[in-house]
Amino acid sequence: MAVACLKHIQTHTVQRQLVDFMTSRQAKLQEDTYFRVMRILQENPDLTQRELAEKLGISVGGLNYCLKALMEKGLVKMKNFANSKNKFGYVYVLTPTGMAEKAAITHRFLKRKMDEYEALKSEIEALRSEVEKSGGEGDQKA
Q1: Has residue 19 got a pLDDT over 70?
Q2: Which residue, of 10, 15, 41, 86, is most buried by count of CB atoms within 10 Å of its CB?
Q3: Is 0.70 topped by the overall pTM?
Q4: In this structure, are residues 42 and 105 in contact, taking their beta carbons and an 8 Å threshold?
Q5: 2-103 has which fold?
Q6: What is the rounded radius of gyration, in angstroms, for the C-alpha atoms of the chain?
């Protein structure tokens, strides 16, 4: 009975860790998307949703969902602007809160990318050592 209970707890713990990992990974991907959207909008506020989606490599529906979330959070707002190249006459602008959040996201994004870079460097070095130990077979260009 105790063994079965322990196995159940261990299984539940592993499942919880997997859910936490996936949720964390999903949250990071979502934050990365928000960062990219805000970054492009700051430079080009009068892009159409189609143009913005193309720049990001996502669907227009996915972008629309993202923009709605950013607007609900008060980070982006849509303003009427007669001189916009957008045929609907609106632009997306970052709010003051959006500018502050973009700065915070930029910091987290840069840290995450630097961590990924360091991990890649370590992996490349390990692979180089492995290739050297195996007699240097194959192409060593990296």
Answers
A1: no
A2: 41
A3: no
A4: no
A5: Arc Repressor Mutant, subunit A (1.10.10)
A6: 22
Give me the phi and psi of 94, to 5 degrees please: -75, 135
Write out the DSSP string of 41-79.
HHH-TT--HHHHHHHHTS-HHHHHHHHHHHHHTTSEEEE
Please identify which residue in the block is written with the tokens 């960062």.
Answer: 35
Please compute the mean of the pLDDT values over residues 24-42 and round it to a whole number. 89
From the list 61, 56, 41, 55, the residue with the least C-alpha distance to 102 is 41
CA distances from 114 to 54, 85, 103, 117, 123 (A): 26, 37, 16, 5, 14
Residues in CB range of 135: below 8 A, 6 or more apart: none
Q: What is the pLDDT of residues 107-140, one digit of tens each?
A: 988 998 999 999 999 999 999 999 999 886 655 5
Domain regions of the chain by residue span: 2-103
Nearest of 124, 77, 119 to residue 99 by alpha carbon = 77
More confident residue, 12 or 50: 50
Is 97 within 8 Å of 74 (Cβ atoms)? yes
pLDDT of residue 18: 47
